[in-house]
Amino acid sequence: MSHGQQSGEAKHEDDAALTEFLGSLMDYTPTIPDDLVEHYLAKSGFQCPDVRLIRLVAVATQKFVADVASDALQHCKARPAPVVKDKKQQKDKRLILTMEDLSKALREYGVNVKHPEYYADSPSTGIDPATREE
C-alpha cells in the first residue's frame, strides 16, 4: 500500500467520523439555545442556515463556559479562607466565587476582564450589616 492510499483512507475515515458527529448534533439539544447562538453569530456578521453548525458552536461555547467555571472554582478553593469567629458561620463552608476568581480563570484563556473600582466584590457583600465583620 502506498503512502497516497493510506492518507486517502485516513481522510475518508476522518470525513466519515465528521459526518457522523455532525449528524449526531441534530439529536442533541445543547444548553445554549440555537436562537441565542444564531443571534450572536449574526451580530458578529456570520450567517449560516445549517443547524448542525449552530449546535457545534453551542457545544464549543458550553465547553468553554464549563472550563472557565471549573478553573474559577479551583482559584476559589485555592484562596485562603477568611478567619471566622462566629461558630455559626464556621459551620457554613460555602464557597464564594468572586470576580477575582473569574478574572484569573478567564486570563488563562486570553480574556482580560476589567471591572470598575466601585464594584462590590467582598465575601460579605449581601450580608446583613448588623452581622457583618470586616
Architecture overview:
The chain is mainly alpha-helical. It has five helices and no strands. The protein has helices at residues 3-24, 34-43, 51-78, 87-91, 99-107. Helix 3 packs across helix 5. It starts with a helix and ends in a 27-residue tail after the last helix.
Given helix and strand content, the structural type is mainly alpha
Unreliable sequence segments: none
What percent of the residues sit in helical stretches (DSSP H or I)?
55-70%
Oligomer: single chain
Strand-and-helix sequence, N→C?
Answer: HHHHH
Provide the gyration radius in Å.
Answer: 23 Å
What summary fits the major beta sheet? none
Number of helices: 5
Could you tell me the strand content as a percent range? under 5%
DSSP, total strands: 0
Bulk shape: elongated
What does the average pLDDT come to?
A: 81
Amino- and carboxy-terminal Cα gap: 74 Å
What labels describe this entry?
mainly alpha; elongated; 134 residues
Which helices and strands appear, and what pairs or packs with what?
Elements: H1 3-24, H2 34-43, H3 51-78, H4 87-91, H5 99-107
Give a brief outline of the structure.
The protein is built from 5 helices and no strands. The chain is an all-alpha fold. It is elongated, with a radius of gyration of 23 Å.
